[in-house]
UniProtKB/TrEMBL annotation, chain A:
Protein name according to UniProt: Arginine ABC transporter ATP-binding protein
Keyword check for ATP-binding: yes
Gene source species: Actinoplanes couchii
Membrane topology annotation: Peripheral membrane protein
Pfam family, one: ABC_tran
Keywords per UniProt: Amino-acid transport, ATP-binding, Cell membrane, Membrane, Nucleotide-binding, Transport
UniProtKB/TrEMBL annotation, chain B:
Residue span, ABC transmembrane type-1 domain: 21-213
Record-given protein name: Amino acid ABC transporter
Pfam families: BPD_transp_1
Topology in the lipid bilayer: Multi-pass membrane protein
Length: 255, 246
């Protein structure tokens, strides 16, 4: 029996004030794959992460995680948007990392990482603390476990944010331009963590402008433009022999 | 007539003044606490998705900001019992009337303070919290409120000190707080300077203690591993790397 793809997005539409941001997007991500989404700003690539992470509802289309439709309740006939309570539970299976880290400034690194465990999963404090410290160690920040976000560099903050998402043991990790807000010399440490994560077999969708990262880590690269996927291909073909003129123009700009 | 320090110190250390001061402080604490609760409810109500809830809250704030606190206390103590016999009973004390009146009035002001504090919390905070799977209520109490509290603390401290002084208005409804204590002494002895000076000292002491307390609480909200006093960013030398590069 064939296992379903871990993530399957079908015909996703989204408009804001009658302006179409996503115009029927389809793509799949297989288990353990890393999908890099490229594209000019305003092309809808960040919007699609908001839809997949269930932070915003889509207008139409379906999102299947591990073969099950998320974001909705009901059977095949009467499908309705799920209430916030259900969405909150479904979100725990999806880790999200933001461009601006969004760490909780009133909690130190450890308690940032613990927050989802204790508040959402109701893990006892002591156990949550152990898991959080373990996770901080994994992103190389064991020594900074008691630092507050304001005492960490951007790169360190983003690594804490990754740990905070990872500790929930998500099936899927989403990254929304995780290095765009960083000083150039801090980008590498975050990409290193992400690369390690990918080689450990985590399924990831990464919106990024880091071409080298996309080429070396992604299993498949997709180009977004005007709310649609223009081209998607394995990185070798995408970068070296793109089929579409739009892709060639985009790549010419980036290099 | 010279200032008679014996009378002054006698009164300063008298039981009546201590009791008056405690009553003033107690009323201020209770009323301010009530106002924070009312203000929080109003602040949430003003951002409700239901238009009716929003207009009720706006109406409340409009009404209680407009009425002088003194008039409100007179209404509470003299007006209400005329309207309903419930308020003629023994349980309806001047303290209770003053507490309700001051909390209602101050609630309208706290609402604006709390609302603006809630709005100051970065939108990314609720996104990150929801992405972790927190419900709306959890987001509010675990993530948004602690951060809003920090913003609301200085203006709330200000309001609290104002409240201590507003409790003196309760002298018109025969509550034996600090000012009433002084007034009653004056009425018999006509030693205005000594009796009022004693009351002044108590107000100074109460407000000083509150300022110290506020300072300590604000220090707990610095969110660094070594608590230090928060300064204006422009006045302090940068110690840590910039939080979020633009």
């Amino acid at each position: 029996m064939k296992t379903p793809p871990l993530l399957e997005v079908q015909n996703l539409h989204k408009s804001y004030n009658n302006v179409e941001v996503l115009g029927g997007v389809d793509f799949t991500v297989q288990r353990g794959q890393v999908k890099a989404l490229l594209g000019p700003s305003g092309s809808g690539k960040s919007t699609i992460l908001r839809m997949i992470s269930l932070l915003e509802p889509c207008d139409s289309g379906t999102i299947l995680l591990d073969g099950e439709q998320i974001g909705v309740i009901g059977g095949r006939v009467d499908v309705r948007p799920a209430p916030e309570r259900i969405l909150a539970r479904q979100r725990t299976a999806i880790g999200m990392v933001f461009q601006k880290f969004n760490l909780f400034p009133h909690l130190d690194a450890t308690r940032n990482v613990m927050s989802g465990l204790t508040t959402v999963l109701k893990v006892p404090k002591k156990e949550a603390r152990e898991q959080a410290l373990e996770m901080l160690d994994r992103v190389g920040l064991a020594a900074r476990a008691h630092a507050y976000p304001s005492e960490l560099s951007g790169g360190q903050q983003q690594r804490v944010a990754i740990a905070r998402a990872l500790v929930m043991k998500p099936k899927l990790m989403l990254f929304d331009e995780p290095t765009s807000a960083l000083d150039p010399e801090l980008v590498r440490e975050v990409l290193d963590v992400m690369e390690k994560l990918a080689s450990d077999g985590m399924t990831m969708v990464v919106v990024t402008h880091e071409m080298r990262f996309a080429r070396s880590v992604a299993s498949e690269v997709a180009l977004f433009d005007s709310g649609q996927i223009v081209e998607q291909a394995p990185p070798d073909r995408f970068f070296d022999a793109p089929e579409h003129e739009r892709t060639r123009r985009f790549l010419a700009h980036m290099h | 007539m010279e200032f008679d320090s014996t009378i002054f110190f006698d009164q300063l250390l008298s039981e009546a003044y201590v009791r008056g001061a405690l009553l003033s402080l107690g009323l201020a604490v209770a009323s301010q606490a009530g106002a924070v609760v009312i203000g929080f409810g109003l602040a949430l109500g003003k951002s409700s998705k239901f238009a009716a809830v929003r207009s009720v809250c706006t109406g409340y704030i409009w009404f209680f900001r407009a009425i002088p606190a003194l008039l409100l206390l007179l209404l509470m103590w003299n007006g209400l019992p005329q309207l309903s016999p419930v308020f003629q009973r023994e349980w309806y004390s001047p303290f209770l009337a003053a507490f309700i009146g001051l909390a209602l009035a101050e609630g309208a002001f706290m609402a604006e303070i709390i609302r603006s504090a809630l709005m100051r919390v970065d939108d990314g905070q609720q996104l990150a919290a929801r992405a972790l799977g927190m419900t709306r209520t959890q987001v509010l109490f675990k993530v948004v409120l602690p951060q809003a509290t920090r913003v609301a603390l200085p203006p709330t401290g200000n309001e609290f000190i104002g409240m201590v002084k507003y409790t003196s208005l309760a002298s018109v409804i025969s509550l034996q707080e600090l000012l009433t204590t002084a007034q009653m002494g004056v009425a018999v002895t006509f030693r205005y300077a000594e009796y009022y000076a004693a009351a002044t000292v108590y107000y100074l002491v109460i407000v000083s203690v509150l300022m110290l307390l506020q300072n300590r609480i604000e220090r707990r909200f610095t969110w660094t591993s070594t608590p230090t006093k928060r300064r204006f960013p422009a006045l302090s030398r940068p110690q840590t790397p910039e939080k979020v590069p633009a």
